[in-house]
Design a protein that fits this description.
single chain; alpha/beta; TIM Barrel; two-stranded antiparallel sheet; 11 helices; 39% helix; globular
């Protein structure tokens, strides 16, 4: 898989990134450690050498699963993790990083990201300068190689950039969720900041596997996703899916592969894709081989807008 440069750093990432929120188990249903470890390893074997996790995914559990899966090939992979919004003070950032290093069983983290802006989820508001000072210190010490942010607006990225180099933004972004195209994407393109999209399959909607009457298992966080539970949104999703099916068939790929291929063809955009098992991980990697013409990209773009144009301006998908 052809690699890309992360921001203005010297780090090379794969355009498709293994997501491991599910490995933490919290807010997911029917997840087995053995299956996730096999999935992470299958992704690596298929050429996906960049893995994204976070301290908050199962309170470090996801990070430990990643370490189990990739410990013997650490030097061949790029590990990205995140510090949560309740750990934004200087000492808290340092301590959180040390915990993540221990969980990941490594002495350096390739990309360390602020998971949510200070104040999110009723967390204490800490000046971004203080947080960035801690991240810069970690970078000087060699504990982290690059700094990223997640769920930041373009204004928040600009403020953080006053105090240090920001190499990536991790926003929710998919064919069915395109808020960043208005402001954040132009800012990132102008400032050479990589976009690392999460929920790149709109939490599974773009696989085409959720029919009109789908019901979620107890504890599945997708039941709070506005694309799923708001009836009008879900109906538009079904309409768009049926229009995408013949394009996927013509390209001899799955619906998920088509959606990933479209996403990684967008300016400076890379796609985080999770997987519950090895088969899904291997299939996700094959999306890198799906080549879309400018006409095909435009056609898919227009279909996506069936879903996105009527949505309000709230940046995240969930009503937690």
């Amino acid at each position: 898989m052809e690699k890309r440069t992360l921001g203005t750093s010297e780090i090379k990432i794969t355009p498709i990134i293994m997501g491991t929120w599910q490995a933490g188990k919290n807010m997911w249903a029917d997840i087995k450690d053995s299956d996730v470890i096999k999935a992470i390893r299958a992704a690596f074997d298929a050429g996906i050498t960049t893995v994204d996790t976070a301290e908050v995914y199962g309170n470090g559990y996801s990070e430990r699963i990643v370490a189990q899966a990739l410990g013997d090939v650490r030097e061949q992979v790029v590990l990205a993790t995140k510090v949560f919004a309740n750990h934004m003070k200087y000492d808290q950032v340092i301590e959180a990083c040390d915990r993540s290093l221990k969980n990941l069983n490594t002495d350096y983290i390739d990309l360390y990201q602020i998971h949510w802006p200070s104040g999110a989820f009723n967390s204490e508001i800490v000046p971004i300068e203080e947080t960035m000072n801690a991240l810069n210190k970690l970078k000087e010490q060699g504990k982290i190689r690059a700094i990223g942010v997640s769920n930041f607006s373009s204004q928040q990225i600009a403020e953080a950039s006053q105090y240090g180099q920001i190499d990536s933004l991790q926003p929710p972004y998919s064919l069915f969720w395109r808020k960043i195209e208005k402001s954040e994407m132009p800012y990132c393109v102008e400032n050479k900041i990589s976009i690392i999209a999460y929920s790149s399959l709109a939490q599974g909607l773009l696989t085409g596997k959720f029919g009109p009457d789908h019901k979620f298992a107890e504890g599945d966080h997708r039941s709070k996703n506005r694309l799923f539970y708001i009836k009008e949104n879900y109906e538009r999703v079904q309409t768009a899916i049926e229009k995408l099916r013949p394009i996927a068939e013509a390209k001899q790929c799955t619906m998920a592969q088509l959606a990933i291929a479209w996403l990684i063809a967008q300016p400076q955009t890379n796609a985080i894709v999770g997987a519950r098992n090895a088969e899904q991980a291997t299939a996700n990697a094959k999306a890198a081989n799906v080549k879309l013409s400018s006409d095909e990209l435009a056609e898919i773009d227009a279909i996506g807008r069936i879903v996105t144009d009527p949505l309000d301006d709230r940046p995240v998908m969930w009503d937690f």
